[in-house]
Amino acid sequence: MKVSVLTGGGDAPGLNAYLKAITFKAIDEGYEVYGFLDGWKGVLENKYIKLSKELVEKEYFQGGTLLGSSRTNPAKNEETINKAINNFKATGFNVLIAIGGEDTMGASSKMFKAGIPVIGLPKTIDYDLYGTDFTVGFYTAVDIVRDSIEKLISTAKSHHRVIVLEVMGRHAGWIALYGGLAGGANYIIIPEFPLDLGDLVKVIKDRYNRGQTYAIVVVAEGVELGNINREVVDEYGHMKLGGVGEQLAKIIEKETGITTRSVNLGHLQRGGPANSIDRIFPLRLGYQAIELVKNKEFGKMLAIKGNEIVKIDLSQVEGKIKTVDKELYNFAKSFFY
Ligand code: F6P
Questions:
Q1: Side by side, which strands form the sheet with 215-220?
Q2: Distance from the CA of 134 to the CA of which of 56, 141, 210, 254 falls in 20 to 30 A?
Q3: Which structural domain range is residue 174 located in?
Q4: pTM for this one?
Q5: Looking at residue 123, which CATH number applies to its domain?
Q6: What angle do CA 100, 322, 337 make, to 5 degrees?
Q7: Is any atom of ligand 1 closer than 6 Å to the C-beta of 123?
Q8: Co-location of 179 and 114 in the same domain
Q9: Is the CB of 169 under 6 A from ligand 1?
Q10: Contact (CB, 8 A) for 314 and 112
């Protein structure tokens, strides 16, 4: 049996843990393992390498993905679909394990329907993948936001300032919500619910009146406050986000008269080594993916519900995202102070 794997979409800490588990378990089953380079682009360009226990063990501790990644969409049109199918069949590989977020899973679902035996594994720092309580990269990104907030508190306190921290997450507010709560942010704004500017200003002013002469406000990049022109940048039609933090800082300074600065955390949320959760779960899921290979069970994504591994049809994941619900945001609002 020849197993192949790809890592697609935005990279994330923990991807190399997936590759370690897949490679170790597959080789122990007597299979060969190949990694396509740069996501679905490697399939379209026939670029892949053979994986060994030695290589994946050496790279296990590294952030990012040893295979590289891209936002290539194989299901972009008939030509790319046919090219991907013909290339894959010519390799003689028996299965393709696709590791990615909603775009990669959506494309993988389409490629499965077109005839490629695919198994999906969940990855995205955004945590917005439908059907799973785990996506590799998310909890490490939350730790990075938490650490950043704690650093910003000391400088905001020293200069009696408000600092706005813009974080990633695309059109979901998970990173902002969990990172903000973990770091003790004084206010968190997410795309799922409109900004109540009056409430934000009141919380900040009440702080200063209590003598707490600083505030940290976390805002998710997908929040729209108007007049930022965006251009489409990738093959899945995603706009390039970023800039709302600076915009919000100007609004806060105007409304409160308090000096306000902004920080856009950007790709620091995707960089560096994975925390333990983002190593253990990929090891478990990657190992289990080879069980599906043994049973020739394709067209599914492995996911985590609670602490259990579950299977979900890729067609169930396609075209959906998971967003923060009102109850959870109301829980977070109880700590805006
Ligand atoms: O999907 C992960 C993510 O980091 C988003 O949070 C962010 O908006 C996007 O990728 C950035 O994409 P790129 O790395 O292609 O600029």
A1: 187-189, 215-220, 162-167, 260-264
A2: 56
A3: 138-270
A4: 0.97
A5: 3.40.50.450
A6: 120
A7: no
A8: no
A9: yes
A10: yes
